[in-house]
Amino acid sequence: MGTRYEDQPPEHWAGPESLDPTPVWKQFALIGVFLVLGVVLLGGVAVLAAAPQLVTPPALVPGDRLVLPATDLPAVGGPPQKVSLPQLGDSRQFWLAQPARGEFVAILTRWSQVPAGASTCTIDSMGAQGTSPEQRWYIARCPDGHAPTFNGRGEPIDERARGLDRYLVSVSDDRVIVNLSRLIVSPERISEPPSP
Questions:
Q1: Strands 103-108 and 59-61, how do they pair?
Q2: The model scores a pTM over 0.85
Q3: What is the spatial distance between Cα 169 and Cα 167, in angstroms, rounded to a whole number?
Q4: Is the pLDDT of residue 3 over 90?
Q5: For the chain, domain boundaries
Q6: What's the topology of domain 59-184?
């Protein structure tokens, strides 16, 4: 047997059906379907991303983002405003405050000394705050009588306490967006071991 194609016996040749390519219109249809699916997917993502700008506040939009009107923002150094809408439930209520100009915090109204601890304390505002975010702004009312205090940023005044948990906040010209899916959990404070 030779090594050239013409030297091969006819039974080794490919049949005429192997030379029939897939019709071009099927290839174009398949590419068109993928393009349409891609455009629909991108459009859906764009609508979800723009949802906070499209709704009328107050509203809870997909992605667990709460949209509030900018008029709900407290003045710089003013008392925090408690946000407790029906769609939030008790576990996700928060204090909205502006401890310094352009700095916005959303502090959870529940706290425990240990992250995700069993005994939770209620966080209350301490009234008029003044202009310093380092002053006492919040107090934790715990079932055991313990009452640590925190500054305007949710940091503990007492170094042994853990800081307050917060939500991520962004502010535009006419609305405040609080990302309820992004809870910033303050790390647990660990005391130093006793010196020998």
A1: unpaired
A2: no
A3: 6
A4: no
A5: 59-184
A6: Rieske Iron-sulfur Protein (2.102.10)
